[in-house]
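Fig. S4 source data, part A: sequence.
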Amino acid sequence: MTYFERLHPWCIVKLLPNCQRIVVARFRKRNDADDHFRILQRLVKEVTFAIVFDIPPQSPLPKE
């Protein structure tokens, strides 16, 4: 995960068949994601979008 992605954990994703998804936009704040999500829903009615919190993957613990 890049530094930019870690700074912007809230994502709007486009839901695709077979449990796939495409990240459409990233935001630092949930409110910004909600506002953008509402606009997308009005403009693109035939596509399903969702807001997700993208948690960075855990780094493995060092072995002793």
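Fig. S4 source data, part B ends here. Strands lie at 10-16, 20-27, 49-53.
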